[in-house]
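Now for today's protein:

——
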Amino acid sequence: MLLPVLGLIVVALCGLFLFGLATARVGPLAVTIGVLAALVPVAGVVAGFLWVDRWEPEPAKFLLLAFAWGACIATITALLINTTAEAVGDELLGQGSGNTVAALVSAPVVEEAAKALFVVLILWRSSEFDGVVDGVVYAGFSAAGFAFTENIYYFGRAFADYGFGDGHSQGVITAFFLRGVLAPFTHPLFAVLTGIGIGIAARTTTKALKIVAPIAGYLAAVCLHALWNSAALLGGSKFLTVYFLIMLPLFFGVVYLVILQRKREQRIIAAALPHMAAARWIAPSEVELLASLPGRRAWRRQAKRQSGKQAAKAVAVYQASVTELAFLDRHQLTSDADRQRQQELLHTLKAARAEATRLADEAARG
């Protein structure tokens, strides 16, 4: 119980430190403008990852913690190490060289490691981690938090230096267009590559792949991050070339891969449902409803309309338990931990069904 409290205290202290640092550098008004501008792209990114996570929603507390990790822990770690690398680069290679060293070497290596560490911790500590989609979602939330804090400073600094912009200077509107419209996906894209590698390692039975996949994902993220930073430093046609010929195609490629993984999740669940009905874990009449997201959504809405919010929440817990059992079933329960996890999920499923039934009966009587 003490560890989560200490973790929250550390996150809060890091957040306060970053807020104070940004305020000292650019001023409170600029920070306020930065926060408002940064909320727009991060809202779209978070909504995208929540859509990815629809079949097997991760616990809200873990997603919130992933975002806070990226926004506070990962950001302050990167800030300290990148600042040190910049100072060392200036000392060893001459004034002005440190920024290049930090952008091309330190930032990609440190930032991608800091963002990915949360995904590793979740994999190590939680039974909720089920594969590639979970790796994508947790890595994406961590990166979204990191980008949110970074954007606050960049937008705030642009406002402090140039205001909103007058058509000739690069004010906050120009910064918002470049970072919030053209490329809000960059940090999440880098982190997702590592998340895919960790997700593959989580469910493969090949020992070599358990090691190679996360390392390969991390190295891909570092290389892509370094390429993006180098393009930003060079600017002009080189930046546009990297953006249109590498970043956008890779982004759409990852989106396509995630869509395929979502469809795979649906097939796994649909295949498991008849067996679950035969085992009397679910009712045969529920198979069709549980096999599609629209069916599940309609079921929750009906429960809310007829029996209230608590009934809809119980149905949501029931549906999530069914999904977890379907994924667990495909591993054929090869360990005591899997069997124990199955019993826990069955208990949760039965309790949720009983709660939903009780609330429906009360609503019918009253």
Summary: The CA atoms of residues 192 and 312 lie 32 Å apart.
